[in-house]
Amino acid sequence: MTIETIKSIVLTMLIATSLLLTLAIWNYKPNYEALEDNSVLNAKTKIDGKQESLSGIIEPKEIIFHEGGDIYALASRQDSLSLYEAFRQWPLDEFESVPKQTLNRKSSLEIIYPTSVPLSVLASTLTLNEDDQVIPEFMVDRIFVDISADQTLTNVYFYSDEDESMYNATIRNFEAYKELVDYINDPSSHLKYLSIGEEEERPIYIPAGQIKLPKYTYTTYAIGENPLINVLFDDPNKVRENQTSVGQSIYTDDRMQMQLCYNKEYMRFTNPSVQPESSMTYSDLIRESMRFINDHHGWTDNYNLYDIDATGSTVKYRLQQNGYPVFNEKGLSAIEQTWYNQELFRYKRSLFQLATPIENDSTKTLALGEQVDEHLAKSRTQYPLLIDDITIGYTMEVKNQHPFIVTFEPAWYYKTVGGNWRPVFEEPVNQGGTH
């Protein structure tokens, strides 16, 4: 076979291959739709939590009995919440403004909320004899229920720490009073309390004796960022992701920004285009923030209304464990929102949900109430004047892995007048024994 013949054969093969490739290109139809489906955000707008009602997120932090010179609470936190649920069913009517001098604190049931709550909001979680009663826009810090005498008419006082007056309503139901008496006449269910700053307008109550509480450990589910992007940004398709030098993800559309922090433990959204000019009424702030969280099923665990700032622009809902508030130094135990002009300015929350409890028989015995009082008196200047509150809570720690492992350990906490919560004892060994 000559060289020319071989060249002709090779050339013919190359031409045939070229024709086949050309035909393949003409007939190839790329899967643009699939690529688009993968390149834009999933349309999901729910984060697999639940919706809540006002009565579900507004609960007291403490229920105290004042009777015969004694101060006590029910030994079981769950019993206290059951008593509060019963109180919510007692029919109230005849709301009227009365002077504070009307109140007899020394023979009453005192229901204390973690933050001031508008009476109009609070009343919507209670039972009213007449639905058309006019409820004023009055901030309530605590409720007093008169237990001074055997009576068919019980006075209920809605009390503000700041106002000179308070509001009175009545319960015309003997069964309601009898239910209270049953608790009063059962000393086995009582837990003695101390009153700190009793001469002040708003004393702080803490249990006097030792409290032993369980520790908890949970696995978690991750909360994906895509549903939040769909909820928070006007046009999710315009959102771009950037990585910072410390490994944080930042999503932005050049106007709003969502930042994922602490290895995606936490999310911070900000809309700088909202001008911080006009805050909302406290009632509107609570209702609007709840509606917003309900819309994307954002109640991923048990949260309670825990703080509203003085400007009426920022509201905070705190995680609850075993009936106690949860604290975390990174802010992972709270859902926080700031609103101006009916628009969301800032939204902060954790990006995990508690899943399966890991079996754990450990308990912790906390320091006595007297020890807490003595320690704060020695370690804090102008105590108790510059202390706003003291409570038992749970410290939440998150193990930095995926999925996260979350632990809860009971501890004493105090609140400064600036609104910050801090552990009473910085060193865990001072809290008491661990078992």
Give a nutshell description of this structure.
It comes from Pontibacillus litoralis JSM 072002. This protein has 435 residues and is α+β, with helices and mostly antiparallel strands.
Notes on the protein architecture:
InterPro entries: YycH, YycH/YycI_2. With 435 residues, this protein is of the alpha+beta class. Among the domains are: 54-208, no CATH class; 357-431, no CATH class. Helix content is 23%, strand content 37%. The protein contains 9 helices and 26 strands. It has helices at 3-27, 32-39, 54-57, 77-89, 119-123, 174-184, 225-232, 282-295, 369-379; strands at 62-67, 70-74, 91-99, 108-118, 127-128, 139-146, 154-159, 165-171, 190-196, 204-207, 212-214, 216-222, 240-243, 249-252, 257-261, 266-270, 303-308, 314-321, 324-327, 334-340, 343-350, 352-357, 363-365, 387-399, 405-416, 421-423. It starts with a helix and ends in a 12-residue tail after the last strand.
Average predicted local confidence, pLDDT: 86
Structural class label: alpha+beta
Low-confidence spans: 3-7, 14-40, 428-435
Helix content: 10-25%
Judging from the principal axes of the Cα atoms, what is the shape?
Answer: globular
Largest sheet, strands/sense/barrel: 14 strands, mixed
Protein name: Regulatory protein YycH domain-containing protein
InterPro entries: YycH, YycH/YycI_2
Domain Regulatory protein YycH: 4-424
